[in-house]
Design a protein that fits this description.
2 domains, elongated, homodimer, Alpha/beta knot, alpha/beta
Chain lengths: 246, 246
């Protein structure tokens, strides 16, 4: 989040028929940090049924806090983003074009303050053209031209994944994906390889080229200190061959 | 795809318990252009059951073409990417760190030729540490630190969505998301607004500032020609007020 006071977008599900899909959406919301779920004409959500069964840990908060509201209430309260599988529409179609992709929204929404709702439609037919006509902007997930229609729960999962930075302060992942070994360790590694090449009587004329290749392989792999230490140990043993000593 | 001869990654599901998840994965594969599905220790996939029920149009191709193989076969045949919910691991953990995110893979995999498999584990426990240890690299979806564990079908959907460019030639979406109206149409629009301001006796001293604001709003919205034409018509009528003529 770019601003601590900003609320992440609200999620609205219109006229879902399958409780399992509502549960799947609640779980994705919790996985990606969203909390407010509004339901327009929802199916019955039995605490022992599929909605709660599919919700994972969202069964403890997102799902039981969901509120039933009218479509008009949503339009009056939020800037609405309608999610739909646009199919080859162009600028002659006012209702479904222009559209944004979830990745576009992920860039733009953090720069706008004001309450926003992501609106997902019913299974099979999605949001009707009449509903889309009343909505502020259209979002469409790029997919296979031959079969672009995602299942409702899967479409919401992809959209919420892309917009996670609007809702999550931190992810479970460390800030960095790799901690590259310190340069002195890497230089020691290359020294040890050179030592091994010498020990193996690798042709003098080829050593420079071989060393360049070795540096490039490790260079691309960004090895961690622990990984480098493992190689250092192996190279030392390969060079000294303590097992062969008398 | 960057190369017509390149095969998109194969999808491998290890020891899934729920046929519905296999169907969900097959559907996401079809939505994002993947076709080869391998199953290690799969549940029974009854043509009248949930796997086929959840597969959408993938019930006609991806799912019936799925082959049962051994985990060893996968390791011997492919560069394997194991998908798992890493939780705050760091460089002291050899098995789950370093990792890549799906977005990283989407950047790197198109630059590498060779058969690749995306490997998804069973529900609840995912891939075991023993399985991960035999795999070439780890992929992890950034999610809520308090609840990073996605449902199997949802994790596969997000990963395949991110990697769609490896499998799809084209999406259903037009090449452009907007076709901005031609500049002469936009200039006509601004002229008409100026005409309306004059007609409304908008204070002379404020006109320039108001026009700048109007240009900025339309400038950010990238309106289509059809949208501009709609405004042109409205402005003309607002300026001329034919309804007020005697």
């Amino acid at each position: 989040m770019t601003d601590d006071t900003r609320e992440p977008p609200t999620v609205v599900v219109v006229d879902a028929k399958t409780p399992g899909n509502v549960g799947t959406i609640a779980r994705a919301m919790k996985n990606f940090g969203f909390s407010e779920l509004l339901l327009v004409d929802p199916p019955e959500l039995d605490p022992d049924g599929e909605a709660y069964g599919f919700a994972g840990q969202a069964r403890a908060d997102v799902l039981p806090s969901a509120r039933e509201v009218s479509f008009d209430h949503v339009l009056e309260t939020y800037h609405t983003v309608g999610c739909t599988a646009v199919t080859n529409e162009d600028d002659r179609n006012h209702v479904r074009f222009p559209y944004s992709t979830p990745a576009d929204l992920a860039e733009r929404l953090p720069t706008v303050e004001g309450p926003t709702a992501l609106v997902f439609g019913r299974e099979r037919v999605g949001l009707t053209n009449e509903e889309l006509a009343r909505i502020d902007e259209i979002c469409s997930i790029p997919a296979n031209a031959d079969y672009p229609v995602l299942n409702l729960g899967q479409a919401a999962t992809v959209t919420l994944y892309e917009l996670r930075d609007l809702a999550l302060e931190d992810t479970q992942l460390p800030d960095v994906e790799r901690v590259r070994a310190p340069e002195p360790a890497l230089e020691r590694l290359y020294d040890n390889w050179e030592g091994l090449l010498e020990e193996l009587n690798h042709p003098e004329g080829k050593r420079e080229k071989t060393m360049r290749m070795i540096r490039r392989v490790y260079g691309r792999a960004d090895p961690t200190e622990r990984e480098v230490n493992t190689f250092l140990g192996l190279l030392r043993r390969a060079t000294e061959r303590p097992d062969r000593r008398e």
